[in-house]
C-alpha cells in the first residue's frame, strides 16, 4: 500500500502523445508476448486521439514519471473502458496501479449523469486480477476465454474443407460490402437472448449490430479485417444469409475470428463447423500459423465447437458490465 501514496493521478488530457508513447510501446510489446497480437496500429490510432486531447481518462505518475494510464470512450449513454495499463518493478505493484487508475475512471463515469451503462473487456488481465474496482462499484462479471488454434502444430493439420458437404440449398460466398445489412440482421437475430448481448449491448439492436460490423471491418481495434478469410453462407432459394465467419489479421501470421454465428433455424447442422474448417484450411494455405478468438466461458455450444476443432484456452479474462437500469431495480 505504501506504493499507492507515492502515486499522483492526473487528467489524461494534460498529456501529449509524445509523453505517452514510451508507455504505449511497452504495452504493445506485452500484447505481442501474451496474446500474439501486434498492437502497433491500435497504438498509433490511440496516439492520434491522445494528441487531440479529447479522451476522458487518467495518468499515473510515480515521482514525476508516467507509469500508467486508463481511458474510456463514450458511445451515447454508454461508456466503454478503452484501456488500462501500468508499468512497475513487480506485477503486484503493476496491478495495484492499474486498479487505482480504474477506480478513478469508474468513479468519474458513475458520477456522470448521462452515462447509463459501462462495459469493459481488458484482455491483457487474468480473470480476477483487476476485479476489485469493478465489483465494489456493482459491476456484473462474465468470464471469457482467449482461445488459440495452432495451425503449424503437426497434430493440427487443417481439417478438410468440408464446405463441399454443405446442404444443397446452402452456398458459400466470400464477404463483400453488399452483405452489411443482411449480416447485421443475422447478428441481431443470432444474439437475441444470448449471454453475449448482456456483455455487448450493440448486439441488442439492429443499429448496434451494424455499428459492430462497421467497427470490425473498418477500424483496426480488432485487427485488420481480412476480406479473403471472411465468409457468409446463403440460402440459394431465398437469398437470406444463414451464417457467417469474419476474420481479421492481428499479426503477420496470426488471424483472429471476430464473429461466427449461424441463424437459429440452421443450428446443429454442421454449418458452424464447416465455416471454421474452411477458414482454418484457407488460413493455413495462406501461411498463417495461428488463429485466435474470444468466447464467453458459459457459451457451451461455441466452446464445445472450438475445443472439438483443436482450439485451446490460452488465457481467461473478465468482461465487466454496469447497467444503471439493472442496478436500480
Ligand atoms: C456456436 C454456433 C456458431 C455453432 O454453430 P452450429 O452450426 O450450430 O454448430 P455445428 O452444427 O457445426 O456443431 C459443431 C459442434 O458444435 C458443438 N455444438 C453445436 N451445437 C451444440 C449444442 N446445442 N450443444 C452442445 N454442443 C453443440 C458440438 O461440438 C458440435 O459437434 P457435433 O455435432 O459433432 O456434436 C451457433 O450455435 C451460434 O451461432 N450461436 C450463437 C452465436 C455464438 O455464440 N457465436 C459464437 C461466439 S464466440
Over all CA atoms, what is the radius of gyration?
A: 21 Å
Q: Quickly give the CATH architecture of the largest domain.
A: 3-Layer(aba) Sandwich
Considering the protein shown, what is the CATH homologous superfamily of the largest domain?
Answer: Gcn5-related N-acetyltransferase (GNAT)
Termini separation: 36 Å
Tally the structural domains.
2
- Major sheet, described briefly? 13 strands, mixed
CATH class of the largest domain: Alpha Beta
Helix content: 25-40%
Any low-confidence stretches, pLDDT <50, length ≥5?
none
Rounded mean pLDDT is: 93
Strand proportion, as a percent range, falls in 25-35%
Counted by DSSP, the helix tally is 11
- Approximate shape: globular
CATH topology of the largest domain: Aminopeptidase
Order of helices and strands: HEHHEEEHEHEEHHHEEEEHEHEH
Bound ligand species: coenzyme A
Summarize the structure in words.
By secondary structure, this protein is of the alpha+beta class. It has two domains: about 1-140, Aminopeptidase (3-Layer(aba) Sandwich); about 145-320, Aminopeptidase, CATH 3.40.630. Helices cover about 35% and strands about 30% of the residues. The chain is built from eleven helices and 13 strands. The chain has helices at about 1-5, 15-35, 40-50, 90-110, 130-135, 180-190, 195-200, 205-220, 270-285, 300-310, 325; strands at about 5-10, 55-60, 65-75, 80-85, 115-120, 140-150, 170-175, 225, 230-235, 240-250, 255-260, 290-295, 310-325. Strand 3 (about 65-75) and strand 4 (about 80-85) form a beta hairpin. The protein is globular and about 65 Å long. The protein starts with a helix and ends with a helix. The structure holds coenzyme A (COA).
Amino acid at each position: 500500500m505504501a506504493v499507492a501514496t507515492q502515486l499522483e493521478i492526473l487528467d489524461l488530457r494534460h498529456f501529449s502523445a509524445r509523453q505517452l508513447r514510451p508507455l504505449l510501446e511497452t504495452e504493445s510489446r506485452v500484447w505481442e508476448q501474451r496474446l500474439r497480437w501486434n498492437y502497433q496500429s491500435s497504438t498509433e490510432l490511440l496516439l492520434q486521439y491522445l494528441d487531440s486531447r479529447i479522451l476522458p481518462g487518467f495518468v499515473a505518475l510515480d515521482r514525476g514519471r508516467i507509469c500508467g494510464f486508463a481511458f474510456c470512450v463514450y458511445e451515447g449513454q454508454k461508456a466503454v473502458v478503452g484501456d488500462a495499463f501500468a508499468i512497475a518493478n513487480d506485477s503486484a505493484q503493476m496491478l495495484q496501479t492499474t486498479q487505482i487508475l480504474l477506480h478513478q475512471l469508474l468513479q468519474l463515469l458513475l458520477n456522470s449523469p448521462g452515462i447509463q451503462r459501462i462495459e469493459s473487456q481488458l484482455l491483457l488481465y487474468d480473470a480476477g486480477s483487476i476485479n476489485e474496482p469493478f465489483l465494489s462499484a456493482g459491476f456484473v462479471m462474465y468470464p471469457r476465454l482467449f482461445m488459440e488454434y495452432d495451425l503449424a502444430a503437426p497434430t493440427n493439420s487443417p481439417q478438410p474443407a468440408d464446405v463441399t458437404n454443405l446442404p444443397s440449398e446452402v452456398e458459400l460466398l466470400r464477404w463483400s460490402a453488399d452483405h452489411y445489412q443482411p449480416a447485421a440482421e443475422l447478428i441481431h437475430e443470432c444474439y437475441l437472448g444470448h449471454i453475449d448481448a448482456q456483455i455487448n449491448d450493440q448486439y441488442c439492436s439492429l443499429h448496434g449490430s451494424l455499428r459492430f460490423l462497421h467497427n470490425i471491418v473498418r477500424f483496426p481495434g480488432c485487427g485488420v479485417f481480412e476480406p479473403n478469410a471472411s465468409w457468409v453462407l446463403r440460402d440459394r432459394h431465398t437469398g437470406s444469409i444463414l451464417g457467417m465467419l469474419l476474420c481479421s489479421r492481428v499479426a503477420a501470421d496470426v488471424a483472429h475470428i471476430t464473429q461466427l454465428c449461424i441463424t437459429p433455424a440452421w443450428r446443429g447442422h454442421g454449418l458452424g463447423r464447416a465455416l471454421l474448417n474452411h477458414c482454418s484450411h484457407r488460413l493455413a494455405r495462406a501461411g498463417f500459423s495461428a488463429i485466435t478468438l474470444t468466447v464467453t466461458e458459459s457459451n457451451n455450444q461455441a466452446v464445445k465447437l472450438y475445443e472439438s476443432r483443436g482450439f485451446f484456452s490460452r488465457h481467461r479474462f473478465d468482461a465487466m458490465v454496469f447497467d444503471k437500469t439493472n442496478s436500480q431495480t
